[in-house]
Amino acid sequence: MSTEQPATAAIGDARPRIEGRLKVTGAARYAADEPAPDLAHGWVITATVARGRISAVDASAALGMPGVLGVLDHRNAPRLDPRAGNYFGPDGSLLLLQDDVVPYAGRPVVLVVAETPEQARAAAGAVVVTYEPYPHDVDFRLDHPAARPASTAFGPEADTGDIEAELAASAVVVDERYRTPEENCSAMEPHAATAWWQDGHLHAVDSNQGPFSVSQVLATLFGVDRDHVHIRAEHVGGGFGAKGPCGPQVILASMASRSFGRPVRVVLTREQVFLATALRPPTDQWLRIGADADGRLRAVHHRPAFALSPLAEYIEWCTEQARTLYAAPAIRTELTAVPLDILPPSPMRGPGATPGSFALESAMDEVAERLGLDPLDLRLRNQPAVGPVSGLPFSSRRSVACLREGARRFGWAGRDHRPRTRREGRLLIGTGLAATCFSAGVFPSTASITAEADGTFTVAVGATDIGTGARTALTAVAADTLGVGTERIRIRIADSDLGMAWGAGGSRGTTSWSFAITQAAAKLRERLGDPARPVTATVDTTALIDYQPATERHTFSAVFAEVSVDPATGEVRVRRMLGMFAVGRVINPLLARSQVVGGMIMGLSMALHEEGVRDPATGRQVNPDFAGYHIAAHADVPDIEAEFVPDYEPQDPLGLNGLGEIGTAGTAAAIANAVWHATGVRQRTLPIRLDRVL
Ligand code: MOS
């Protein structure tokens, strides 16, 4: 690892968000705040059957109600181009109001448009949609008859060594199933869009994680040039993945605006966010780990299944950890997809890694238990020198530093590793740990920097700030790469007119945008001449990025948790958590800490609370709101410590590596392992409900 770090002024400095004041004073405008002349409002109606067809839409009563402009359904809505897709190719979930087919419960099937949101909502209540239901299947399990190998678009499966022979030769074998439920992205700001057409151009202010990619999808859907679609996402109140794809709100608002010749706003209700936007698929994961008596792993066999929809290919990549974290002579992964009649799953914070590491790190704890080993030692004994499957060198691998420094700060030494040995009054106390990793890298983006005549620099990049502080981080990056103070930087982001750019996702936003900024800054420096004349340099990094992996590039973490369990009620409380993270160089410790603490809270919420419950009889999610789907509230969240080990990613010009998702990924297993330590009861199914503890 290179430890050489360039001398800088702004990078590494803890600074508050540039737009913080705008947000706390209410001056920051979100997608549903955008003023537009003659604005109309759309109200969405969603399907109530899981599979079937629409046999009738009776809008006659609604059309006579006050303020109603019209009702869009599959019979009169603008036609959309079916070639439109999201991450993994064509995506039928984008093709709203195109036919009478109902592919999942919660599918938007009607949009009522009126002068006010209240009028649209009232009229929606008067629309009668009749369905002819077909048999549906929402019965998710690994051994489902429709289970098939998942797409290998992220690379071939691991298959090294002889799994069965190594398992047979192992002193202990853990052979278990781990399950995680459906989960929903619960951003504070529901999905919303305000859209209008003008001179053949589509304009929208939309709540999304990447205005450029959303503009591409909309251009295809509506059959217009990409540069005739102008999408802004100035302020976004959280995304967590659900605002990565082009969402139903902006598709429906754009359709209605075209039909009615007026700007139209569509705001989803919380229930519609649950039912119609995004879903972390449930997983059912078979794991076998074999080890020698001295704790050396011989075999890791991971066969995780996840649910998807026939409408869209998707990869819940649960197997990165099994092929990356530990050395073993035999490693096999078999990622399995189960198509069901559900909302198409899509990435949710720490996609794949979050359920995948829950399974792997729980199973590792079980190996330690059977060998009577310290779970920390078990991990330290199995550190790979190179990628265990790829054979490639690691770019920067500070996993051990995270484990050792985390253990020191948490006070791991001296732990009695036997379960049910610590009590405080009636409470059982336990501690647990988990290690994990998350893939890192960089994607093409465009940055443009103008040296203004007054000595300031305007930096434009199609980044999105979904609450992370991207503006503030990128201002520091621009200041340091230009060698000036941050007061001379003016940053413009979140506008598809700024050019092609990766979105805020995949833990690759900041690395991708910063790379483009460093390249544009270098080009600008070459061109600077007469300081009185503005000069602009624009760089698209597409040609500068080499996709042949020369190294294993990941971020790493270790999470430690302490829980108390009430043996009378089964109530689990997380008393403290500590996360150590290796994420490359940290641009802004204040914002970075906030982001990983948020990630750990999301992991706590996954461990103890979150569960999308689907009724097999109707195929519907029965708890699509915050009354039925609990996310961690302040009272659930203990003292959380999060720190970064010194790290520098040698492949990145600034040493950056990625931050957004690693915080969530390792947390659930650390808590589940702590619950086992407290109680002696293994938690192989999330969430850890009272009935599963007792
Ligand atoms: Mo994140 S789930 O890559 O938006």
TrEMBL record:
Coiled-coil stretches are none
* A Pfam short name: MoCoBD_1
Molecular functions (GO terms): iron ion binding; oxidoreductase activity
InterPro entries on file: Ald_Oxase/Xan_DH_a/b, Ald_Oxase/Xan_DH_a/b_sf, Ald_Oxase/xanthine_DH-like, AldOxase/xan_DH_MoCoBD1, AldOxase/xan_DH_MoCoBD2, AldOxase/xan_DH_Mopterin-bd_sf
- SMART domains in the record: Ald_Xan_dh_C
Pinpoint the Aldehyde oxidase/xanthine dehydrogenase a/b hammerhead domain residues: 25-135
Q: Write down the superkingdom of origin.
A: Bacteria
Keywords, alphabetical: Molybdenum, Oxidoreductase
Is-annotated flag, keyword Oxidoreductase?
A: yes
Q: Which PANTHER family match?
A: ALDEHYDE OXIDASE 1-RELATED, XANTHINE DEHYDROGENASE
Q: What is this protein called?
A: Oxidoreductase
Please spell out the taxonomic lineage of the organism that makes this protein.
Answer: Bacteria, Bacillati, Actinomycetota, Actinomycetes, Streptosporangiales
